[in-house]
Design brief:
Layout lengths: L29 H18 L14 H9 L3 H19 L8 H12 L1 H14 L5 H18 L17 H4 L2 H4 L1 H23 L12 H30 L3 E11 L13 H15 L6 E3 L18 H17 L2 E11 L8 E10 L7 E4 L18 H10 L22 E4 L7 E5 L9 H8 L10 E7 L8 H16 L2 E7 L4 E3 L5 E2 L15 E10 L4 H5 L2 H27 L1
Helix pairs in contact: 1-2, 1-3, 2-9, 3-4, 3-5, 5-6, 5-17, 6-9, 6-17, 9-10, 14-15
Length: 582
């Protein structure tokens, strides 16, 4: 096998031979490069829920890394990297098409851009600097995951950590590093396997003594040692955490799940029918005497804030029914709803609408309310609504399906009271009280939201557990629901809080502070998803620990961002030097 070559960036005369490739072999043809990317696409797709073949996540990026390191032509592998990323998101995020075809396409394109952006420094470090991919790849890739979680409002979906949500011994490290630490382990193993592949394909066959082969074998060993050490330390920490006895059983909570698919141009089920079904399920759950009942986000359309509920008889009736239920059962009741406040003297808007969670108390007093803080772009709000770029808002708003061609300003306002918590006592005679927060919809996906509910700015634990209410009926009955649950698991482990989820179309369940999922809502046919209505009652897990992550947040993710930026800077420095020498 002849040692192949790779050109350095910069100009070079046609007669001068290209320098030898640090990897000892190249792939010039498009078909094998595309085949490697397709292999990564297939392995990555089967690793994520709902298929959930989680061992595949330790291998899914290896074929792509081989293509990045072996491709003779950098632009070619960058284009293929973008295309396989685009295919992955279009395939595995197709549930978003149910709600917004334009948003589905735009978000897929945006997220796919991270693949060639990551391929550039990866290629530089392995080919020019000779770094083990077992070390370079996790730093670069996790830096990209961190940016995906915060840029343009953030969409932390499809992290390498997420297929591992059920491997409890691996995900405990999340209470220190966030989900990024688990992704780091998976990425390191992928990179180490790519290092071993490069060493295997190096000219010289099995003879490790050949001078041309020695550096590649050494690099593979370093990558393997680093990945193995990282994996063993993570597993050791996970076993240690799982053996601790800090989780106790807290209040008894009932989560109620409907199965009503939503649509932009109308709903399949009338509100009155929904209301009757939800109230029937609440009555059925009352047999187990929960301390807290939870309905999903927007179980039916209702405004429950004092300024609006008297505008329509059905809203007034819903308010009276829910308050009476809480008083009769001597329990708290949480429901999602809309809120609107008239602001006639406000120069920005004459009314402010919110996505809210309302907490009815057993004493029958005025219910408390949390208004969602983290709004989803284009689903709940259109950017640039106010300020000098308002012209962009009008253009974007016209494209949105909820705006009726731009005639309707459907954008909500974020909550002004930030991440407030609520107090719950099991009974009037019980001196012990619990505090809980209510992340609404995709707020349970955003790492910073759960952290702010749990610890806030005080760095003291202010929430004993979280209640997630969501309406996933906008996405049909596809793959979104199990993906959403898998992502939510990491919020529980990161902050050591139990989470109870009440989700329209599912999956409603309980998550313990160690990530164990239990008491999923089960339908009459014994299945948990899809097409299930029902309820589940369980004592929610309460953990006495305040995690490192709750205190210090995404320090590990940002550290990887800094490392990735430094590697990018090194790439541009090397490129500039090559241009000067040409």
């Amino acid at each position: 096998m002849r040692t192949a070559t790779i050109p350095l960036p910069g100009r070079r005369s046609a007669a001068s031979p290209p320098p030898p490739s640090p990897d000892g072999f190249t792939i010039a043809a498009v078909k094998p490069l595309a085949g490697l990317c397709v292999a990564s696409l297939v392995l990555a797709s089967v690793s994520f829920p709902p298929l959930g073949v989680w061992p595949a996540v330790f291998l899914c990026m290896t074929p792509w890394l081989a293509a990045v390191g072996a491709s003779r032509h950098a632009p070619r592998v960058y284009l293929l990297s973008f295309l396989w990323g685009l295919a992955f998101f279009l395939l595995n995020m197709r549930w978003m098409y149910e709600a917004t075809g334009l948003g589905y396409a735009a978000l897929s394109v945006y997220q796919a851009l991270y693949f060639p952006l990551a391929a550039c420094p990866i290629r530089h470090m392995v080919r020019r600097r000779g770094w083990p991919l077992g070390i370079a790849f996790p730093m670069i890739w996790i830096g990209g995951e961190m940016l995906r979680a915060v840029v343009i409002s953030g969409f932390p979906w499809f992290f390498l950590a997420h297929p591992l949500h059920g491997v409890l011994s691996l995900i405990q490290i999340s209470d220190v590093t966030g989900a990024y630490g688990v992704s780091f382990v998976a990425a390191a193993i992928n990179g180490a396997l790519a290092d071993l592949l490069f060493a295997r394909l190096q000219p010289g066959g099995e003879d490790h003594a050949l001078p041309a082969r020695k550096p590649h074998v050494r690099r593979a060993r370093i990558g393997a040692i680093f990945a193995s050490t990282t994996l063993l330390l993570t597993l050791g920490y996970g076993v240690f955490r799982l053996q601790q006895t800090t989780i106790s059983r807290g209040p008894k909570v009932a989560v109620v799940q409907g199965d009503f698919v939503m649509a932009v141009d109308g709903e399949e089920t009338p509100d009155e029918e929904k209301r009757k079904l939800y109230m029937a399920m609440l009555d059925a759950a009352a047999v187990e005497k929960p301390d807290l009942y939870v309905l999903p986000e927007t179980p039916w359309i209702m405004y429950l804030n004092a300024e609006m509920r008297d505008f329509r008889p059905e809203w007034r009736g819903s308010f009276a029914t829910l308050r009476r239920f809480a008083m009769q059962r001597q329990a708290h009741l949480v429901t999602g709803n809309a809120s609107m406040v008239q602001t006639p003297h406000d120069l920005l808007a004459k009314e402010r609408r919110y996505n809210s969670a309302t907490v009815f108390r057993p004493d029958g007093g005025e219910p408390q309310r949390y208004d969602k803080v983290h709004l989803v772009y284009f689903g709940e709000t259109v950017p640039f609504r106010f300020g000098r770029f308002r012209f962009l808002y009008f253009a974007l708003n016209r494209l949105m399906p909820f705006s009726d061609g731009g005639e309707v300003e459907y954008s909500l306002f974020p909550g002004e009271e930030r991440f407030r918590t609520f107090e719950l006592k099991r009974s009037a005679d019980d001196d012990k009280s619990y505090h809980f927060g209510i992340p609404i919809c995709y707020e349970d996906v955003m790492p910073y939201v759960a952290r702010r509910f749990t610890a806030g700015a005080s760095k003291e634990k202010q929430a004993d557990f979280l209640i997630n209410i969501s309406n996933d009926g906008w996405f049909g009955r596809g793959t979104q629901q199990p993906q959403h649950l898998a992502t939510c698991v990491f919020r529980a482990v990161e902050n050591r809080v139990g989470i109870a989820r009440a989700v329209n179309t599912g999956i409603s369940a309980f998550v313990d502070p160690d990530g164990r999922v239990h008491h999923r809502v089960v339908g009459d046919n014994g299945k948990t998803w899809p097409r299930q209505c029902g309820f589940a009652v369980a004592e929610i897990g309460v953990d006495s620990r305040l995690s490192w992550y709750s205190r210090y947040g995404d320090w590990f993710g940002w550290l990887c961002v800094v490392a990735g930026v430094l590697l990018y800077v090194d790439y541009w420095i090397a490129r500039a030097q090559a241009l000067r020498e040409a």
